[in-house]
Amino acid sequence: MSPQDYVQQKAAASGSSFYYAFLFLPPERRAAITAFYAFCREVDDVVDEVGDPGVAQTKLHWWRQEVAQTFGGQPGHPVTQALWPHVPAFGIEAQHLLAVIDGCQMDLDQSRYLDFADLQRYCHQVAGIVGEVAARIFGQSDPATTHYAHRLGLAFQLTNIVRDVGEDAVRGRIYLPVNELQRFDIKAHELIKRGSSPGTDAADFQRRFTALMQFQCQRALDTYDQALALLPPADRRAQKPGLMMASIYRTLLREIAAEPLLVLTKRVSLTPLRKFWLAWKVQALGRL
C-alpha cells in the first residue's frame, strides 16, 4: 500500500465530517489536507486506543522523533511520507505537528480543566493549530484568516466535547470546566455513571444536566458566529472547506441542544448522506 493510499484509508475510515469537506478540493490540496488529517488521527489514536499510559507516552515520544526525522528529509511512517512533499508548498512547519502531539500529551497528563480559560489552552493545541494548518492548505491569502482558523478550531473542539461527554467520562476524562459543573450542580460521578445514582431523583439530574449542556451548546454556537465574523472576505472562497465543516458541525450541535440527554447514552451523529448534502450546499450555493 502506498503512503497516499494509507492516508486516504485513514481519513475515510474515521467517518469524520472533515472528510466530506476534502472531497471538493483540487487534487494537490486534497492530498495535503488528507495527509495532515491522517497525521492528526494517528497521534490522537495513541491517546484514545492505548490503555497503558506508559506505552502511550512512548508512542508520542516516537512521533516527536518521527517529526524531527521527517523535517530532516527522511520521513519513515506512511503518514509523514505522504505529508512531506506538501510541506514547502503550504508552509507546514515542524512546530505545527509538534503542537498537535503536545495537545495529545495533555490528554495523558490532565483529565480535568478548572475553568474555560484552562480548557481553551488545551483546545488551542489540539484544534487551533489544526485549523491554522488547514487554512494554509485551503489557500489562505490574508494573514487575518489565521485568527478565524483558530476560532473555528475552538468551535469544532467545543462541539466534540459536547458530543463526547458520555464517552469521555467513561474513560475518566471530563473536559467540561470544573467551575461550570459546580455552577450547574453536576457531580463528576454522575457523568461517569451517565446519570444519577440509584435511589436519587433522576428527573432532577436530567434537569441539571440539560441546563449545563444547553449552556455548553450555546457557547459553541456563539463561537462559530465569532469565527465566521473573523473570516476576511478575500479568503471566503478559498476557505469553503472550513465553512462546509462548520455547517455540518453546527447542524450536529443544534441537534444535541434539542436533546442533550442523548450524549450520555450514544454518540450523536449525522448520516453520511446528510453530511455530504450540507457540504455540497456550501460548495454550490456558498452559504451555511
Write the layout of secondary structure elements.
Blueprint: H1 3-14, H2 17-22, H3 27-49, H4 53-70, H5 78-83, H6 87-90, H7 94-109, H8 116-138, H9 145-163, H10 165-170, H11 178-183, H12 188-192, H13 202-230, H14 240-258, H15 272-285
Helix pairs in contact: 1-3, 3-7, 3-8, 4-7, 7-8, 8-9, 9-13, 9-14, 13-14, 14-15
**Gap between N and C termini, in Å?**
37 Å
CATH superfamily of the largest domain: Farnesyl Diphosphate Synthase
Q: Let me know the average pLDDT.
A: 90
Q: How many strand elements? A: 0
Low-confidence stretches: none
What is the highest CATH level, the class of the largest domain? Mainly Alpha
- Per the principal axes of the C-alpha atoms, what is the gross shape? globular
**Percentage beta strand:** under 5%
The total domain count is 2
| Named CATH topology of the largest domain | Farnesyl Diphosphate Synthase
In terms of structural class, how would the helical and strand content be classed?
A: mainly alpha
Q: Quickly count the helices.
A: 15
The percentage helix is over 70%
Please summarize the sheet with the most strands.
Answer: none
H-E string? HHHHHHHHHHHHHHH
Give the C-alpha Rg: 19 Å
3D architecture notes:
This protein has two domains: 109 residues, Farnesyl Diphosphate Synthase, CATH 1.10.600; 179 residues, Farnesyl Diphosphate Synthase, CATH 1.10.600.10. It is built from 15 helices and no strands. The mean pLDDT is 90. The two termini are 37 Å apart. The chain is 72% helix and 0% strand. The radius of gyration is 19 Å and the shape is globular. Helix 3 runs parallel beside helix 7.
